[in-house]
Amino acid sequence: xxxxxxxxxxxxxxxxxxxxxxxxxxxxxxxxxxxxxxxxxxxxxxxxxxxxxxxxxxxxxxxxxxxxxxxxxxxxxxxxxxxxxxxxxxxxxxxxxxxxxxxxxxxxxxxxxxxxxxxxxxxxxxxxxxxxxxxxxxxxxxxxxxxxxxxxxxxxxxxxxxxxxxxxxxxxxxxxxxxxxxxxxxxxxxxxxxxxxxxxxxxxxxxxxxxxxxxxxxxxxxxxxxxxxxxxxxxxxxxxxxxxxxxxxxxxxxxxxxxxxxxxxxxxxxxxxxxxxxxxxxxxxxxx
Length: 288
Hints:
The chain is α/β, with parallel strands linked by helices. It is built from eleven helices and ten strands. The protein has two domains: about 200 residues, Spore Coat Polysaccharide Biosynthesis Protein SpsA, Chain A (Alpha-Beta Complex); about 70 residues, no CATH class. Helix 6 packs parallel to helix 7.
């Protein structure tokens, strides 16, 4: 089986270069691995010339001028990829050596459709696990990761990533995992496959500060309505309020708090009214 590594990036050429060098030094056999860089609206094209030949020869670079969207960039990479297994890496992570082989090993089990790795971040001199799961095994749909892989076949079966997740696209990975599980696939958490999240503040598909909570509220409600039962929707209503409205930033600024409250109730009613429309599954991978 061939492996494709898809890297969506937006105005992070320095961290992208570090990631590509990390892939070269990781000890993985690149002979049966292709790397696809999906570069969205760069100020200037990323240059592969100064990278090692092992990376240059196996990297396909795509310059995108008409959108900046994490799920759209991932879907673009899926359509252009040739691999049976597709690994997705955010542009601000550094995988540990041998991660390709570790991902690959899980797919010898034909029942496995997706594998999520573990993300570590350095805090006060210690590496902290950012992943929601701590133990290996089958996972629930609620996942958070910028380091995961899927079979190409299942991605085309369910239609790829939902491109209606906006801004930082919170819940896009959970949405994909939920739909794969509904389609009968198994998604596994593999904590031995690790990466370090560098946490670059510049670039990336982040929303402006004044839009951040609004998009988080919208994306959360979209995910819950689309993938969970009505009972779980009711359960999540106060959780979304706690996570997106009762923030420290809002607590310090009454004007922002009022705005978040308005956004919260607006998207709550939007989710209830548009429930049937939101649940429709669009196959984004058949689009040009």
